[in-house]
Structures are given as structure tokens and as C-alpha cells.
Amino acid sequence: MTVAIEKPEQTETAEPAAPVKAARRISRPMVLGAIVVVWLVLFAVLRGKQTLTLAAADLTDLHRWINDFNDSIGANRNSNPLFLYFFNEIRLVIDNLVTFIQHLISQPSGARPVPEIGWLGVVGIAGYVSWAVGNWRVALLAVAGFTFFGLQGLWQESMDTLSLTLSAVFVALLFAIPIGVWAGLSDRFNRIATPFLDFMQTMPTFVYLAPLTLFFLIGGASATIATVIYAAPPTIRITAHAIRNVSKTTVEAADSLGATRRQSLLKVLLPMSKRTVVMGVNQTIMAALAMVTIAALINAPGLGPVVLQALQSLDVGTAFNAGLAIVVMAIVLDRVTTAAAAREENARNAKHDFAKWRRPLLGAGAAVTAVLIYLSHTYLWAADFPGDGTVGSHIASAADSATNWAQDSLSGLTNTIRDVITNGLLNPFQTLVTDSPWWLVGAVLVALGVVLGGWKSGVTTAVCVGLLVGTGLWSDAMTTLASTLVATVLVMVLGIVFGVWMGRSMMVDRLIRPTLDAAQVMPPFVYLVPFLALFGPTRFTAIVAAIVYGAPVAMKIIADGIRAVPETTVEAATSAGCNTWQIITKVQLPMSRSALTLATNQGLIYVLSMVVVGGLVGAGALGYDVVAGFSRGELYGKGLAAGLAIVLLGVMFDRITQAAARRATA
Amino acid sequence: MTPTQTEVAHRSGTPQDSEDTPVISVRRLWKVFGPKAERVPDSEELCGLTRRELMDRTGCTAAVRDVNFDVRKGEVFVVMGLSGSGKSTLVRCLTRLIEPTSGEVVFEGQDIREADAARLRDLRRRKFSMVFQHFGLLPHRRVVDNVSFGLEIRGMSKAERTRRAMEVVELVGLAGYENSYPDQLSGGMQQRVGLARALAGDPDVLFFDEPFSALDPLIRRDMQNEVIRLHHEVGKTMVFITHDLSEALKLGDRILIMRDGKMVQCGTGDELVGAPADDYVREFVKDVPRGDVLTLRWIMRAPEDGDALDGPELGPDVVVKEATRAVLAADKPIKVVEDGKLLGIVGDEEILAVVAGQEGGA
């Protein structure tokens, strides 16, 4: 039966792709239109056939095979030499590092009921280090921030998160800086490393977790390893970039003075790229914090699990309190490292007498910090944060009542928005992609890939589609795809409106940009909390969170693109009598087309990672599969396959949009 | 077309004692960029091709083609050419910042191309130093630390190198700025730092790669005067790269003109102006105020019957501009005399022909 039907279908699959050959002669929008029309017609005819749906508890052979594989690894973990001498060793080292830092600042250590260094000592260290690497303003911020964790009643959780973040950053930098320097010095190594780094950064945070648990079990160690992998690329990239951008003349000058390779590395290249490298370290820290919170899914301790449990039980107040702690920690870490990057330059321009005082002041600060550490080690009042976190419960209950108020009085508005977008945009589109036969959607995707990005991206798309089918999660992948695309469309609308506005007005840019920068620093997790309060646990919540997460980057890229349009071109258009609307639509937007495609690319990737995290609040589909895979053994294989499907979607989106961006610039 | 290398007496102010042993001797030097570059200088056929043909045939670019010259001790040797003529590549080949493809660069009786890494480093640390067009300073170090950088690399102690750096800072007129950072200085002052850094190691030879091209005209003039002053004070051998003919004429004892990697002519300024080797050089020197460059040697004529031979005497190396007043003031032609021997005479017509900008001299 099926074979009989499939035959004519096969010829039809080629049809949407057929006009592509004429793409040069017929305009691209016409081809796209034709593809959509063919799709709609076939959809009307074939609706509901061969959709490859899989019920939540159903498994395919692949999933069962992964389950078995996981079981066999579990059984042989202590006998297989690969594990005995490699994975287990890594795990042990990382585990020791994490436990060591935890005993230092967060967990009871040995016979002591409290960690080695109590809250007073940690606050002292935080302030002192911030002051030493940054300035007194960020030191105050750090002290205030850390004290706030205690007041929230989340001291131990915050310190756990900090311990994991610090261990991961430490290990990541241990590898990332030398690798970055190498990539900066060697063209060949750089060429090899770049595609890997691209790939690692395209992936949503989420998908690192599943395969790692296979090798490193769940818990702090594998959370740290996942974080290292996720957080290292920015530093590698930025270090390589910094080394590469050191002025050629300066390196040549050092050579001409007879510097050895080592001397020119230590005295020229590294000092001159220090500032940029610190910015890379900043990015690594931010990425690590984001990942450590999400690693709650694999039982990493800290603030993440608090948010996670609260999200799952829809306890907005608690989630908000813990989310706030994550935000505060992100702000403190970001400000301190940014100040560290700027410090040397400021010090250079500062008066000399200040520099003279710096050394003795640092010494005095160290002495005070040592006293604080001693106190916190010896006395209980300085070890255990006093009070019972009343501030935290106030925050939680305030958030709760705000939520209740919002749900009571804004529900009309929020529900309307939700229903309009869900019914008007999301549902029809989702129906279209999930209820069409898989081969039809696949063919449409390939055709779009070819038309938008050329033959190469068409081939990549075809491979991705094939593998998606192979994961057995086609239908779920299509649901995620629908949500992602809808969210991306909205991101681009926002991005274009605000980006154009920012690009055209310096003042607007100065007002909005700091907010956008701050928004990008936040771990994706915490975005869910406020929208959960407003919209309840639905797909829509995830989509709104994704929009808010993805829009800043799109806005910034578009604003920069608009600004990069040469002043003279705009002037010429103005002198030709264009009005503002004409300048925007006929000059500025067309000329920043490559920025628009790049914004789409970044928007898609950001949105995808967020839509997946949305699986935590009822967004379903792939995100849910992954989450369920972590918590229920029999769904482990399915979760891993879902992670793979997310990767495939990411690669597909990324390749098509990047190829399109290259076309736009060409 | 062979480069003319006429021997004419030097301009005043250059030490002439040991000019017979050149400091640097360049022989058949080639630098070819591209795949399998080493076959180009070896093949007579490929050598004969123009730059374009070579590119089409082999995918190689010959930046320096068969260059030969000697740099004498204590002189300022200028290499001049337009951009793309290979002059910057040439100067980098001399210290192997760029590895030459073939040929010899003899310094102190040894071919630099044979030197191993340690010897080369030692040469760079003690014998050579270079001043760059874009300064190449270290932005994270103060002026004094930039100047002492070369000494630091040698392994000199901090106190000693700071003392030496301060001397040189003083010498280049940067006293009072030693604790500034490069980005707090103007372009001209930054280049003084570059100059000081080059001088700090007390090298035998200073290489200048278009050091003043990035500077404003007025500052450029100051810096040129600074180089002339330093040359008088420290008497170093200098190899100076420029694309500016007036700079070349102002600073250079001898000038090498390059075009498309080949040397076109090598000689003193008055030789280039007085006897250009080909149309390329002629076009180059067309707008030079000839009276400022040519000496009486270039415009004198043999005495004819009826010339009064009892006029005042001048040497053959007096520049026309300086002789003008004397020639015009005298009512008889000037005798050009060297070592008591009459070489020729110069009258009003000869002077006016040069000063009025007409063709004159050789």
C-alpha cells in the first residue's frame, strides 16, 4: 500500500525544488511564493498522512538502543579501561576540585557543620578581589550583592553556584587561553579550530548535558565539564583574535631588536592582548554561570535547582527570589570583570601619586580580608549568615502577590495577546508543519535551503532532514521548529523596529543599548520566571521568553548595520527628496541586508535555545523530551535523541542563514 | 640598462676614512614571493620576464630583483622608489625580517644569509636596528621602557638599561616625557621614541623604513633635521627608505632608485639630477630645483678662446645655488679649480640656465 502511494509522491517531492534552476531568471521572492503555494496545495490534499507522530511515552528502536547502550555503560563503568583510566579519572579530578571549593565556601567541611570560610570571609574576599582587579565601585557592588544573597536566605545555594562557576571557569581558562594563543599564532591550527568553535557556540546550552551524563554520570562533576565545554569557546576565540590583531609592525619591531619567539610572546603579544583576553574571560564567566544554572537538570547543586523546582511546581515567588539571586550574581561578575578589563587603561591615565599608594593599600586590604576570613572560620556568627532570609520570603511573597494581581487584573489583556498569537500565528503554522507529510515538509525545507542559501546549504538541509527523521522525533522537531520560527519572526519585527530607531538616533541608542547589554548577560533560565507569572505554563510563555532573549542581539546587529550605511548615501537620498520612510525602506534597510540576515541567524539560534528551555514550563516538544529524559530512565534514549534533533535544527538554521548572509554580502 | 655608479666626491660632512671597506655589501639579491619561489632567480628565462608575465607564468611576484650595492661606513644610503617598488622588502631582506630568496648580504665579512638563528638574533640585538613607518611601539609600556626594550631583550639589568634609555631619550629631545605612554604623544614624538629605541642599543647600522611618511609635512621636516643632526652627532651608518625624492636628496649621501624591484640608478643626488640613467629617473627628478642639487662640476664648460681666465676661483663641489651670487657679482667667469688644476669655467649663462629652470649641465 504505502509503496504504491509513495511512488507518485517521490516525483512530487522534486516539484517544489524544480523552479530553483530558474532562480536566476525568475526573482527569488517568486520562487519562494511558488514553493509556499505548492506546499499549501499538497497540504490540503495530504493533510494528516505520514506525519510520523510519536506519543510521549512511545519509543523507537534508536531510543531503546541508546537506553541499552546507557545501561551497558552503567554496568561496565568500573571495568571498561576507557572509563577506568580516562573518563573516571577526569571525573575524579573535576569532582575533587568542585568539592574542594564547595568545602571552602558552601558545604559543611569535614567535622565542621559549616564551610571553612563563612559568609563574612567570602564577602571580604569578594570585595577585596573586586577592588584589586577592578575599582572600589565594583567592590562595593560585590559586597552588596553577596550580602544580598545571605539576606535572601540563599547563601548556601548561591555559594554552590559560585563554586561550580569558579571551578568551571578555572578549568576552562586553563585550556582556553593556551589554545587561544596557539590559534592566534598558527594559521593552520586556527583553520582547524574555527569550525569546531562555531559548532560549539551554535548549540543551545541544553544539548551539552545529555551526552555528558552518559560518560560522567549526573551531578556536579558532569555539570562542571558541560560548563567547561560550553564556556571555553569565547575565550579561545577572543584570545586568538586578540593575538592576531596585535599590530604587525610592533611584532616586527621586536623581531628587529632580536627578540626570541618566547620574548616576543611574553613581552609583546600577551601584554598587548591582555585587555581583550580579559573581555573573553568575562564572556566565559557569563556563559559558565548560565550553564551552571541550567545544569540543575542533571542534579548540579545551587540556585538552578531552586528555580527549576519552583518552575515545575509553578511557585513563581520562590522562582523569582532565586532568579533574582542569579541575576545579581550575573551583574556582579559581569561588572567586576568589565572593570578589570578597563582598569589598566584607567590606571595609566590616573595621577602617579595614586599608583604610589596602591601597593600599601592593597597590602592593608589583604590584611583586613585575612582577619575577616579568620573570624568567619572561627566564630559561628561570621560563618552562618545570620537571620532566616526574611528578605527572601518578602521578595517571594511580593512576587507572588504581584503575580496574583497580574493574573487577576491583567488576565484579560495577557490572555488576549496569548490567544491572538497562539491562534492567529502559532497554531496554523504548527498545524501546517506537523500535519503535512514528513517528506513534504522536508522537501520544502530543502527547497528553501537551496533558494536562500545555494546548493551547498540545500545539501546540508537534506542531510539534517534525513537525520531528523532518523531520530524518530520528527513531529516533535516540527513543533519546535514552528515555535522557533514564529518567535524568530517576532524577534525580527522587534529587531527591525528598534534597530532602525537605534541606528538612526544616537540618543535612542545610548538609552536602549545598556539595557540590551544587561539583558544578554542573564542566564536564559531566569527569563522564564516573569513570563510564567504572566502567561502561565504554555508554549506561548516559552515563545515570549525566547523573544525577549533573542531580540536584544537582533536589535544590536541591525542598529549597527543601519549605522554602517555611509552618511553620504543617506545625504544623497535626502537631497534627492526622499522622506524618512523612503530613506529607511529604500536606502538603509536594503543596504544593511547582510546585517539583517546575520540578525536572523543569531535571532534563530538564541530563540531555539530558549524555546527548548521552555520545555520546563510546558512548551512540550523537543525541550520536554530532553527534560523528561533526564528525570526518567526509560526515556533517557529519547531525551538524547531529542538533544540530537535540537542540534540538527540548529545546524540547519545556522547553515541556511549563514549562506544567505554570504549571498547578501556578495 | 646598467645602473650608473659614477664615482664622484662626497658631499661635505661625511667621514671618508674607511670608505673602501663597505659596511654592508649586497650582491645579486632576490626576493620572490609565491609558490616555488627559489626557481625564479635560477632560471635565466624567468629572470627576463616582466613582473606581470612572471605572475601569469608562475604565480610569483618578484619584489626584489637582482639588486647590488654597497653601503659605506658612516654614510646615509637612501633607497627610493614608489610604493610597490620593493624598497621596504629590500630593507627587510637586509636583516632577514623577510628571508631573501637568493643572493648575498655581506656584513663584517660574513653572509648574513648563512647566519643561524642565534647569530642572527645577536646581530639584530647589537649591530642593527630599525625605525618603522608606523612606529611599532608597545602601548602598555612607558616611553623609557619602550626605549629600553631592546636592551631588556639582550638581558641587560634594569638599572643599567634605564640609565642608558634616559641618555637616549635626552638625545632625541624627549626629556620630560619618559614616563608618558605612547598614546599620550603626538605622531612626531612617537617616532622620536622609535628613533630612541633604535639608538639605545648603540648599533652599527640604522635602518629606516619610511619613518616619516605617516607624519605631517612640518613635523616631517623637523624629524629630517633631527636625523641629520643625529647623523652628525653619532655618525652611524644609515640605510633610509623613502618614497619622497626631496627627502632622499636632503638626507642621502647616495641614493638608490628602485622600480618594480630592480635598481634603476645608484649615485649621489647631483648625479641623479645631472645624469639621470633613463627616462624614469628623468621624470622623477624633473621638478627638483636643480640649483639646489647640482654642483659647479655639472654646469662648467671648457674654457674657450677669449674667455677671461682671471676671475675668482671656486671648488667643483660648490652647489649652484650657493655660487650664484658670486658668479653674477663677478664681471668675469668663475674658474672651477680642484687641487690647483683648472677644470672649467662657469659664467652668467650657465648659472642662469640652471636657476631659470632650463636644461643645463650634462
From TrEMBL, chain A:
Membrane topology of the entry: Multi-pass membrane protein
Pfam families: BPD_transp_1
A GO CC term attached to the entry: ATP-binding cassette (ABC) transporter complex
GO terms of molecular function: amine transmembrane transporter activity; carnitine transmembrane transporter activity
Transmembrane segments: 29-46, 139-155, 162-185, 205-232, 277-298, 318-341, 361-382, 438-469, 481-504, 524-549, 603-623, 635-653
Gene3D superfamilies: MetI-like
Compartment(s) of residence: Cell membrane; Membrane
Top-level taxon of origin: Bacteria
Major place of residence: membrane
Domain ABC transmembrane type-1: start-end pairs: 158-337, 477-657
Keywords annotated in UniProt: Cell membrane, Membrane, Transmembrane, Transmembrane helix, Transport
CDD domains: TM_PBP2 (cd06261)
Any one GO biological process: glycine betaine transport
InterPro entries: MetI-like, MetI-like_sf
PANTHER family per record: GLYCINE BETAINE/PROLINE BETAINE TRANSPORT SYSTEM PERMEASE PROTEIN PROW (PTHR47737), GLYCINE BETAINE_PROLINE BETAINE TRANSPORT SYSTEM PERMEASE PROTEIN PROW (PTHR47737:SF1)
Protein family per UniProt: Belongs to the binding-protein-dependent transport system permease family.
Protein name: ABC transporter permease subunit
Organism: Streptomyces guryensis
Automatic annotation (TrEMBL), chain B:
Region named Disordered: 1-21
GO cellular component, one term: membrane
GO biological process: glycine betaine transport; response to osmotic stress
Alphabetically ordered keywords of this record: ATP-binding, CBS domain, Nucleotide-binding, Transport
Keyword Transport: yes
Location of the ABC transporter domain: 49-285
The organism's place on the tree of life at top rank: Bacteria
GO molecular function: ATP binding; ATP hydrolysis activity
SMART domains per the UniProt record, alphabetical: AAA
NCBIfam families attached to this UniProt entry: proV (TIGR01186)
Family: Belongs to the ABC transporter superfamily.
PANTHER family the record matches: GLYCINE BETAINE/PROLINE BETAINE TRANSPORT SYSTEM ATP-BINDING PROTEIN PROV (PTHR43869), GLYCINE BETAINE_PROLINE BETAINE TRANSPORT SYSTEM ATP-BINDING PROTEIN PROV (PTHR43869:SF1)
The name this protein goes by in its record: Glycine betaine/L-proline ABC transporter ATP-binding protein
Lineage, highest ranks first: Bacteria, Bacillati, Actinomycetota, Actinomycetes, Kitasatosporales
